[in-house]
């Protein structure tokens, strides 16, 4: 098991729970026991939680799994024919079955090596940024995706002067649609975050960030949140197919006996009929469980066909989304109004319901629409009847 | 339910019917209202109507529910469910 975060943990737990009694080695490049990442940009950055709340399992529960833990040492190479993983300390770990769950790392900007520049992926990243924030500190967040937006909201709550710099005209439009994106933009304005759209950053510079038009935008701290890069470098030359992540089939297999799970894995999701790579917390767990079962019972393998789920907290807005919203062709608000921050929107791809996104709605309504996604309900049947004018 | 996620309703097969007792704990402040637990184990978990936060219906679920409860605990995106088995 290479990767000791949510996907790797789910895989080893599933293997043990379902009867695997052999050696299980869990390899991770961070020195910590598996921990939870979503709170990093929320409760940890905001100081409501200390690091002792993020471990995914109590030490006793982890001990009970009987793992060979190799933490703080990165995997550096894979020998598919010889069935061994090479580690940074020069050792080699042999395997019969392999799960690759090495996640992603933040995409960087030129010049971001200095003290004022931050990224937010690990516990150490979150604590370093938290130490430098506070009332009156000027924070520039580069990128108004979910991570940047959540961090901006939290930093604002700490009293920092926050500017969000986003190249697109509407933040998150490809992910959630323009109307929901505009609602989120308004939430930032309402809370005193200076959201600047259509602004592209070239590099982190002395005194702030340099925009592509050459202007220096001044800031004390800079958070670079411009997406991530799958950690597949160590697999170069291994013979596995690498593209946008580790390429896997519908069983999430990359080669016989080799599976990918979590943020690093791009696999064919038969429910949506398309290849996807999902950087969401829930997917890491579900995919870790699924590949463990496929590894354990090769004769009863099942395609990995989940309804992806994510949530995001920004100020008092909690977004819940089920399905595959990216690449949607149409959005319909079927209940409430985004402007009132209480609504339910559904997303169409082709002639099917592809996703649902809700803010402040009763859970039963969300679950009902989630079921429409899970059954790939026809858009005309599900939405057409609700909106006879085709609004 | 065709095409449903492979991780739902396909609960683990071990540990059932062996006289194992199970106790469930939820860390309510951690809950993010995803509803994943309700979809997997609706007899054990529910959600508050106003904000979707978890409601524990059954602290000591019957053995036939154990596999689904374990699945809920693992899938919970907030790691807010703890299962203690004796």
UniProtKB/TrEMBL annotation, chain B:
Example GO molecular function: iron ion binding
Residue ranges of every copy of the 4Fe-4S ferredoxin-type domain listed in the record: 22-50
Low complexity bias (residue ranges): 1-11
- Keyword NADP in the entry? The reply is no
PANTHER family named among the record's database cross-references: FERREDOXIN
Q: What is this protein called?
A: Ferredoxin
Q: Which UniProt keywords apply?
A: 3Fe-4S, Electron transport, Iron, Iron-sulfur, Metal-binding, Transport
Under Pfam families, the record lists: Fer4_13 (PF13370)
Renumbered to this chain, region (Disordered) spans 1-21
Q: What cofactor requirement does the entry state?
A: [3Fe-4S] cluster
């Amino acid at each position: 098991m290479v990767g000791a975060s949510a996907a790797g943990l789910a895989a080893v737990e599933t293997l043990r729970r379902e009867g695997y009694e052999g050696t299980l080695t869990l390899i991770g490049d961070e020195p910590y026991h598996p921990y939870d990442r979503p709170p990093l940009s929320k409760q940890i950055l905001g100081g409501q939680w200390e690091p002792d709340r993020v471990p995914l399992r109590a030490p006793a529960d982890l001990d009970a799994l009987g793992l060979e833990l190799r933490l703080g040492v990165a995997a550096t190479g894979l020998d598919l024919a010889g069935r061994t993983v090479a580690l940074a300390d020069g050792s080699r770990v042999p395997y019969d079955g392999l799960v690759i769950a090495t996640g992603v790392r933040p995409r960087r900007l030129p010049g971001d090596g200095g003290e004022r520049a931050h990224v937010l992926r690990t516990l150490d990243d979150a604590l370093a940024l938290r130490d430098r924030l506070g009332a009156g500190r000027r924070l520039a967040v580069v990128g108004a995706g979910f991570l940047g937006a959540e961090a901006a909201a939290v930093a604002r709550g700490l009293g920092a002067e926050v500017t969000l710099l986003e190249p697109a005209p509407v933040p998150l439009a490809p992910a959630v649609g323009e109307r929901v994106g505009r609602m989120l933009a308004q939430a930032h304005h309402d809370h005193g975050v200076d959201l600047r759209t259509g602004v592209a950053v070239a590099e982190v510079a002395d005194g702030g960030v340099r925009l592509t038009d050459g202007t220096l935008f001044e800031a004390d701290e800079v958070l670079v949140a411009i997406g991530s890069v799958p950690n597949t470098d160590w697999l170069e030359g291994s013979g596995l197919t690498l593209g946008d992540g580790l390429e896997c089939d519908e069983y999430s297999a990359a080669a016989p006996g080799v599976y990918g799970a979590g943020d690093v894995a791009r696999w064919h999701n038969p429910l949506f009929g398309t290849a996807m790579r999902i950087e969401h917390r829930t997917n890491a767990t579900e995919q870790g469980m699924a590949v463990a079962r496929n590894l354990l019972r090769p004769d009863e393998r099942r395609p990995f066909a989940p309804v992806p789920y994510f949530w995001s907290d920004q100020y008092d807005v909690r977004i819940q989304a089920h399905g595959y919203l990216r690449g949607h062709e149409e959005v319909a608000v079927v209940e409430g109004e985004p402007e009132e921050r209480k609504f339910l929107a559904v997303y169409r791809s082709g002639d099917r319901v592809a996703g649902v996104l809700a803010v402040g709605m009763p859970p039963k309504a969300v679950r009902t629409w989630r079921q429409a996604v899970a059954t790939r309900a026809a858009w005309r049947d599900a939405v057409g009847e609700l909106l006879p004018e085709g609004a | 339910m065709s095409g449903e996620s492979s991780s739902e309703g396909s609960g683990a097969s071990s540990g059932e019917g062996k006289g194992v007792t199970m106790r469930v704990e939820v860390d309510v402040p951690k809950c993010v209202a995803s509803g994943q637990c309700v979809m997997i184990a609706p007899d054990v978990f529910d959600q508050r109507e106003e904000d979707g936060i978890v409601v524990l219906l059954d602290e000591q679920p019957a053995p036939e529910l154990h596999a689904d409860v374990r699945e809920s605990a693992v899938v919970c995106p907030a790691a807010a469910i703890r299962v203690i088995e004796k």
